[in-house]
Specification:
Number of helices: 8
Shape: elongated
CATH architecture of the largest domain: 3-Layer(aba) Sandwich
CATH class of the largest domain: Alpha Beta
Number of domains: 2
Radius of gyration: 20 Å
Strand content: 25-35%
Number of strands: 12
Distance between the termini: 39 Å
């Protein structure tokens, strides 16, 4: 089998269908999705797309984002045949400073990274906890603080402003703009009631927000999608109650488990989530060329 890796500025409708179907097959095989939400949303857009194929057809896919992060996967029937090495090698040849993600930190990914001299530079932890009796009750908020549901069209600018302030140093979340918000509101999982806004005495800005997610919408696993507190209010003890507001919404929606993603070096957030009963479930790692050793989260 000779693997040919070909770059594309955009994917045809047929290629999109093939990549999406193969990504779903990889998810079933590995119990972890090979492409994150941002990369899935970018599939139909112009960008850097790499397809691996041989005379028999599709073997794997890779994508490089504008910030240099990358994601790739091999179609399950084509594994253990050198496709991953060919695909990642071609990606690194075209983009030597790119940073590939390995979702689930699977043994095959670790072995391939070691062969190519890649080291871990970032860890994204997946934390989880079961829904328990009492989770459905909203917490008591500090004096002067209230909450309500997001109203599309009315709250867009305020949400983007508090998100930008809360995640000014975050490599992905801080870049959320109006187009990105509109794109996410168009997804099947979006519900305005699941985007909880926190307000206090200052009418000029939101105090914070907790964006929850259930994907698929009829699934039994909910997600703490994004939790943000305005920097002006750090130290006021809002992180815990804001987290529990989202848990209460998800519990009332009938999920059995709640999971979330958090940077492995975000100690304050990790402390908040551990107090709320979350435990480590999985890890996603980002690799970079010329880096050795492992960053523990």
């Amino acid at each position: 089998m000779t693997t040919q890796v070909t770059p594309f500025a955009s994917l045809s409708p047929e290629q999109l269908t093939t990549v999406r179907a193969a990504a779903e097959a990889a998810t079933r095989a590995d119990d972890v999705a090979p492409l994150s939400e941002a990369f899935l949303l970018a599939l139909p857009r112009d960008g850097e797309h790499l397809l691996a194929a041989d005379e028999g057809g599709f073997l794997g896919y890779a994508q490089v984002a504008p910030d240099g992060s990358a994601e790739l996967f091999v179609d399950p029937p084509a594994r253990a045949k050198g496709v991953g090495a060919a695909l990642l090698g071609a990606l690194l040849q075209r983009h030597p400073q790119s940073h590939p993600w390995a979702h689930g930190d699977l043994p095959a990914s670790r072995a391939l990274a070691a062969r190519l001299g890649l080291g871990v530079v970032r860890e994204l932890l997946v934390l989880s906890r079961p829904v328990e009796d009492g989770d459905e009750v909203d917490p008591v908020l500090p004096s002067g603080v209230t909450h309500r549901a997001f109203e599309p069209g009315r709250d867009d600018a305020a949400l983007l402003a508090v998100n930008a302030a809360a995640f000014v140093d975050h490599p992905e979340q801080g870049d959320l703009d109006r187009d990105g918000l509109t794109e996410r509101m168009a997804q099947p999982w979006f519900e305005a009631q699941g985007l909880i806004l926190l307000e206090d005495e200052d009418p000029e800005r939101l105090a914070g927000f907790h964006w929850t997610k259930i994907d698929p919408p009829d699934g039994d696993i909910g997600e703490v999608y994004v939790v943000g507190v305005h920097p002006d209010l750090h130290g006021r003890g809002l992180g815990g109650p804001l987290t529990r507001l989202g848990l209460a919404h998800l519990a009332r929606r009938g999920v059995r488990e709640v999971e979330l993603y958090v940077e492995g070096d975000n100690d304050p957030a990790l402390a908040t989530y551990r107090r709320a009963g979350f435990e480590r479930k999985a890890v996603h790692v980002m690799y970079s060329p010329g880096v050795h050793g492992h960053v523990e989260g």
